[in-house]
Write a structure and sequence with these properties.
By secondary structure, the chain is an alpha/beta fold. The strands form three sheets. The protein has an eight-stranded parallel barrel with strand order 3-4-6-7-8-9-10-16, surrounded by seven helices. A five-stranded antiparallel sheet has the order 12-11-15-14-13. α1 crosses α12 and α7 packs across α8.
């Protein structure tokens, strides 16, 4: 007899005869595993699609669907909306006050960022690090904090580094560095009224995997001892739940943090134009749905925040076709507001369920792949299907004046406040005002 197992992405044919070799048994098991994984992916995506009030194109490159007045068939269940606020956009949000959509439509805001050094101190060794710290003492920040708390939002302080030397030192000396770090963080929390801490510490490889868990464990214990209401959110990569060689050990990290902000972006293919945050992948590659499938087996889903992008990726391509080979393997970043303002015709990529535009520039082909209200609505619906705590965004203000982008995150329902604001006294520091603004968009890198 011939045994055929259809995996949706390939077919396994067993040889004739009564017995199979160990290699053949392993191949059959792998085919069955892939078939189950593909079935789970399609089931999750189809359930999400049914929640969104849009007829999606079935032809590759068709005109992207317009945003309807009502994005969802019914409002999604209430969930958290966690939004990063870049320090240089904070003054404009402060000026708009608590009625600003970016504030009113969020549950939590994460101020990005201050930087950590190898010894656990707060450092100002770069323009971004200095300005992120200095802006805390401005009148704009005080107004921003007041507006956020008036709207019922919690505000967290993001601690950031991507420096492998710094990360290794923190991981190797976790017990000592955590004490110094928590002292500095609590000083900032009490001085400026923060409601918690976000750890945006982005390492590579597994060398510091266990050390980072120890660092987070000690930070969590010290923060909760100082105030059990302080929230701790750690950022992680989309692939972190799928491998034991990633920097983030999400299973153990989830024991010590309140939420994991899963950075479900920068999932593009390195050789051809592709989506920044694909909803799904016909080859079972990186995608939002595979991220959630893997994470749900590693951590409680009520600790997951699915982080989504308000920016896109711009590729220099050899042809105008979607999925074209790249001229360069390093895409640039482009804001949704800039893409929208350009007014180019948006096309739809069926596999990733995201829009893209094609245009010529300086004699060569270019493609912008990004998320719009429809694609974000699908991702918010997917997060609901998997019963996550909510969705998040990197980063507020990148959407410009598009209330539809914010509505796509909230799911058509008013996002619940995370918890009551904490009335800390605020003291003014003697830090000077930043002399300039750096407006280069920071990109995440993936392990």
């Amino acid at each position: 007899t011939v045994l055929i197992i259809a995996a949706g992405i390939g077919t396994f044919v067993a040889p004739r005869g009564p017995s199979l070799t160990p290699a053949q048994i392993a191949a059959r098991a792998e085919a069955a595993r892939l078939a189950a994984l593909y079935a789970a992916e399609r089931a999750g995506v189809q359930r999400a699609e049914r929640l969104v009030n849009v007829a999606l194109p079935s032809r590759e490159g068709a005109i992207a669907p317009a945003t309807p007045a009502k994005l969802f068939v019914h409002p999604l269940s209430r969930h958290l909306v966690v939004s990063f606020v870049l320090y240089w956009t904070m003054p404009s949000l402060a000026a708009a006050g608590s009625s600003a959509p970016d504030i009113a439509d969020s549950s939590e805001l994460i101020y990005s960022a201050v930087c950590v050094g190898a010894d656990g101190t707060i450092v100002t060794s770069s323009v971004d690090c200095a300005n992120g710290m200095n802006d805390l003492s401005t009148a704009s920040f005080a107004s921003f904090m007041q507006a956020a708390h008036s709207s019922g939002d919690r505000v967290l302080l993001s601690l950031q580094t991507i420096d492998p030397i710094v990360i290794h030192a923190l991981a190797v000396h976790a017990s000592q560095r955590s004490k110094i770090l928590v002292t500095n963080l609590l000083n900032l929390v009490h001085a400026y009224g923060f409601d918690g801490i976000n750890l945006d510490i982005e390492g590579r490889g597994s060398r510091d995997r266990s050390g980072y868990v120890a660092l987070v464990r000690d930070i969590s214990a010290a923060l909760k001892a100082a105030d059990p209401h302080l929230e701790l959110i750690a950022d992680t990569y989309p692939q972190s739940a799928a491998t034991s060689t990633d920097f983030y050990d999400v299973t153990h990290l989830a024991r010590y943090v309140d939420k994991l902000f899963v950075m479900a972006y920068q999932m593009e293919n390195g050789t051809h134009s592709s989506a920044n945050s694909p909803l799904a992948s016909p080859t079972l590659g990186w995608s939002d749905v595979q991220t959630l499938i893997q994470y749900q087996h590693a951590v409680p889903t009520n600790k997951i925040i699915l982080g989504l992008p308000f920016y896109g990726l711009s590729f220099a391509t050899t042809t105008k076709d979607p999925g074209s080979p790249l001229v360069s393997d390093a895409p640039g970043a482009t804001l949704y507001s800039a893409i929208f303002a350009a007014g180019r015709t948006a096309r739809w990529d069926v596999a990733s369920a995201t829009p893209f535009t094609v245009f010529k520039q300086n004699g060569g082909w270019h493609q912008d792949w990004y998320d719009d209200p429809v694609s974000l609505a699908l991702k918010s619906a997917l997060a609901t299907v998997f019963h996550t705590a909510g969705v998040g965004v990197w980063a507020m203000s990148m959407e410009g004046d598009s209330p539809e982008m914010l509505s796509a995150l909230s799911g058509g329902s008013w996002p619940p406040p995370a918890a009551p604001a904490r009335p800390y006294p605020r003291r003014r520091s003697a830090l000077c005002l930043p002399p300039s603004r750096q407006t280069v968009l920071p990109l995440r890198y993936k392990d």
